[in-house]
Amino acid sequence: MTNAILDGESLNIHQVASLAYGPEEGRDVRVTLSDEAWQKVARAEEAVQGILDRGEVVYGVTTGFGAFKDRIIPLDQVEQLQRNILMSHAVGVGPLLDTATTRAMMAIRANTLAKGHSGIRAATLRLLDDPALRAPLGNAARRRVDERFSATSVLPQMEDVYRSVAPGPRG
To answer: Is 162 known to be catalytic?
Structure first.
C-alpha cells in the first residue's frame, strides 16, 4: 500500500509518481491530509467566512474577476460566482488525460490546497477523499462530466451574474 500524508510542504516527485501509477501496478493508494494541514484549511475557511460576515470587499470573493473587479457581488450571489469561476476553468480542449496523469494532478492540487492559503471549505477538500473520485472514470462518465462542465453551459450563467451587478445597459 502507498500512503501519502499531504501537508502542503513535503510532497515530492517520487511520491507523486507512486500515487499516480500505484493502482496500475496493483498497489493500493491512500492519500490523507495531516492534522496540521486540516487546521490550516479550517483557519482559512473561517477567515473567508469572516470576510463575508463583515461585508468586506475582497477581489474574487465579493467582487467579480478581471474586467469585472470593480463589480461588487451581492452576498446572495457570492456562492454562484464561485461556482461559475470553477466551472469556467473546468473546460478543456483535446484528448482526455490518462488516469495516472489525472491522479498526479489531483494529488498535487490537494497538496497545494493543504497549505491553507486558498480559503477552500474543508468539506470541499474532503471530496477528494471520496472513493468514487479515486476510481478511474470510464469514457461514458467522462463524456457526462465534459458535457456538464462545457463552456456553453457555464458562460451564460456567468454573464447573468455579472449583468445583474454591472451598471449600464443590459442586453
So the answer is: no
**How far out from the chain centre does Cα 10 lie?**
21
In contact, 72 and 167? CB cutoff 8 Å: no
Could you report the per-residue pLDDT of 16-33, keeping only the tens digit for each?
998 888 877 777 778 889
Give residue 94's identity as a one-letter amino acid code: G
CA distance 61 to 119: 10
Gap between the Cα atoms of 145 and 6, Å rounded: 27
CA distance 40 to 128: 17
Q: What is the pLDDT of residues 50-97, one digit of tens each?
A: 998 998 888 888 888 888 889 998 889 888 888 888 777 766 677 778
Instruction: For residue 95, give every residue at least 6 positions away whose Cβ sits within 8 Å of its Cβ, in sequence order, or none.
Output: none
What DSSP element (H or E) covers 3? strand 2-6
Q: Which of 24, 30, 42, 59 is the catalytic position?
A: 59
Q: How far apart are CA 31 and CA 4, in angstroms?
A: 5
